[in-house]
User: Fold these one by one.
Assistant:
Number 1:
Amino acid sequence: MQAEEPFVDEEDIIEAVRDLRVVDGVVSFRGVSWAMPPEHLSSIQRALDLLDVKDQSGKWQNLSWDEIQESATETMLLPSTMHDGDMMLCGSISVLETLASFRPALYAQLVLAVWRDAQVIDHTGKPWINTVSLNAELLEAKPETADSGCSVADWMVASAMIAGTKDLSVSEEELGHDGFFGPDAKGPDGKALTFPPGLTYGWDVEKMLLQLLGCTTTEREIAYWVPRPSITNRMIGLTDQGGLERGEAILLCLISDSTWKRSVSEVIDHTPGHSEPSHWVRVHSVEDAGGDWLNVSIFSFGEPQERMISRNGWSRIYFEAIFATLPPLKA
């Protein structure tokens, strides 16, 4: 994908997307070109029927339907442009990026329900957990788009999803550290596991995958900073088999973003101590590059990011992986 200029408000975006066509496996829109199967573009265009409503009333006091329509349409075209804006929304944003990538109609339904009814719905269209009515403070909020880079529609939905997850700090207090996280939840230096305030926990991301996307199975694999070749090999196998491209398996990782950014094997393999789990991403591919090297592509902070990294280095920078399976779409 190559971007020449950002999206601009020169025309009605929904009508512009309806007019798009795939040519030689590529779609081009407002200076951006990327590969897309014709059937996926058709699914996006069908999903637009849900959003193609003029002046749809909503319950969010400081947002407008026009900006929700536009940003949601852009997201369906380019899901990996989602950005959590450094606001600890990375767990729900990674789930939303998966949803928009493989189920644009479900994504559009969720955007509409959160805007119109202030309610998160599951993949069957029913209210999700305790989000029947979002609190007034959230409905009066808005993203600081100038600073965060977060799209309005995705911020709205991700914030509502976070509001619908249950804070389990009381359970941690009752069960104790080992009972809550597991007895191995300590880093190489012996320090106990802690999460940054506001980070979405793995069980909540798993719940979102099962209930909002409709995944049939999920499996959490926790590494605790210790390389586990079986997890990396599973990622490579799913990439080789085309599973991650088809949406048959969706993989989310909790990694240290700062460690990923400096992912040179010598740095990761020999740096003492450990990084605390702090950031959710979605894995797009993990390919064997020969020898001890991997080509890794992930979605993180509004773009696909790629690195060549050693196997051991890659295994050291993810704390938890969630493997999830989406059922095939009905014809």
Number 2:
Amino acid sequence: MIENSNDTAPLNNQDIKTLLASYFPDTSHYNEEIIQEQIDAGEILLSPDKILPYLQTVFFEEHLFELQPDLSTRVFFTNLIDDIPDTTKEEGEDIIDDAVTIEYEPGAYLKNNDSFVIAPLNPAIGNARIRACKLVVVRFFMGTIAVELGCTFRSNEMLADNTPALRLDFPTIGRVNRNYRPFRVKVVSGVDAKLTILRPIFDSIQEKTHQINDVSAMGLSFQMLTNERNLEIGDQVSICISVPGINDLELEGVVRHFCKARDKKGALILCGVQFDLENRSLATDIERLAAAIQRLQLREIAEKTAGLSGVRLIK
């Protein structure tokens, strides 16, 4: 028997099969031997100590969540955010020392294995839909891997800093899908990886350079302000990528998709571009680019998590 991630009641084989069938119907044909093999290999996640490092990875590496309510075909987008304790003093309460705020570690609430908090969903219709759903699958990507976590909606909240948020119960089950897509390197906001659109030229764009969100051998996505979208799916673009430590790289590509997201500054749009690689030399340059970003990424994450207790990131 295996213990449930949210309580002490053990899960038997039938419980596990029921959870898998509920959140991941395509695993319903698995027999008990295959299920046990995947649990042992870390492909099926059932306990808090297995699931928590994935949530911490999402938080510290600033991954975008895909959210799927009740296994619907429509996917919504959001980010995992912090839940900093409220230190506001009510009348008659003892004075609270400023050390309370100082002692709080980023993402510490996740270690309670009770719940996690996400920003409002995009498109916005998802914020109403999630309140009535029975189960929620959240998904994020690491390189070639898709990690999916099964949980339930708990409440619509206003956090201590007056940030609107949705609270989900700590995941009951999770699974790891390997080779889900080409390897991508996620770029955290502290890494100075920028993109400039050389063609077409837009006089109305507020920002001439854009923060890169992630990059793979096949393409990348970058951030745009919601009020400056000038591109359309199918547009041919010429871009220049600038990353500290390597020469600027000019590439041709095609706009493939847009999705709405949020970061600490507010709403934005992620624009996905597929590269048009004319020769192997360009492909090699992309590999060097991804490696350089990954080095900067690792350095940034190491600085963020230095001195924090109980934080394990998945690599």
Number 3:
Amino acid sequence: MSKFTVFFGCNESGVAWWRAKQPAYKLMEKGLCNVTMFSVYDTVAEEDASALIDPADIVYIPCASGIQLVAEFLKYYEIGKKTVADYDDNMFDCHYLNPAYKTLGLREVHARVNGKEQYIWKDERNGFSIKDNKIRHASYTDILQIADSLTSTTPYLANEIKLGMQGREMSDITILPNSIDFNIFRPLPHKVRTGSKLRIGWAASDSHLLESKITLNIIEKLHAKRSDFEFVILGNIHEFRTSERAKKLPIEWHEFVDLGIYPTKLASLELDIAICPLEDVSFNRCKSQLKWSEYSSLSIPSVCQDLAPYHCIKDGEDGILASTSEDFVLALEYLMDNSEFRKRMGEAAFQRNYEDFNLDEVVYDWFEMFERTLSKDRKLFYKGQEIQRRDRLEKVSV
């Protein structure tokens, strides 16, 4: 039996790196199937996306949305190509302090800042359009009906996606956890830093502004009790970095880097302990264990929020769960004061992730999902009439 071909549609987002490029590269490395890929940087500008899609049996799109994509998914259906839509966030309930609210939010948001009421999100200002976002939300619902298969990262998120699937079965969603390529996430061959203080760290993108308050509380409380540590932050959260509270604390800042070198950058920080704080909001409950997995790939023990994404952790064995900033501080102090326990937990975290969240193994789940998708024979209807097939693909753009 000849290998099937999967087209991966990518942009340069973190979602595309984790949910498209990483599995695509691993599928190619293992020789499991053929892959074509469109990416803003990796594809010649003049190259028509149709030339990449034409040979594909399956079209896979992470974070699939938009009216144009709805139309294209219908085209693929008409000519017999299978489609897979992936979601690694709850697109229907984004918190207003997440930058993604700009394209996901459905309501204006205002709050009292410095004693004055002001808008955080105002319709038709700074690119925020409620009308456009409602159309985008409608496209999510349409794609959930049209795509042959759906993929997601956790059972919790899959249950949230199911709410928008209008009668489709839960079996139509395959859970493919965010996983680590241990060939690129690995410690540096030689230790560089020679300081005597323990290094505690947090890696966070701009989407984690909500968690900056928790992190500040943790650092302040720990710093008030002791000074035998260095706190390291890898990230570009401008509002956090420029806040008066943050300026008063001894924080070592590192700019976020391109994901292609992110594994090496994270390893270069040589962290002894890491934290994974999360505010308890519905959007965050739909996140995955990925940050813990990143740290664990480097044998760094972590203190993580006692929230759904981290409930896969065996508390006290391969990580520590904490509910409040006080809990975080107590857990951090215990790790700081018990070097053997700290080392043992880091090793257990590595082993657990190597066994359960290793892309070299999880890639076979991706392959099997694509195989199942190929075997499906779904029929789509519009106003009671079956949508007819045709024999060729018209020019499309991605």
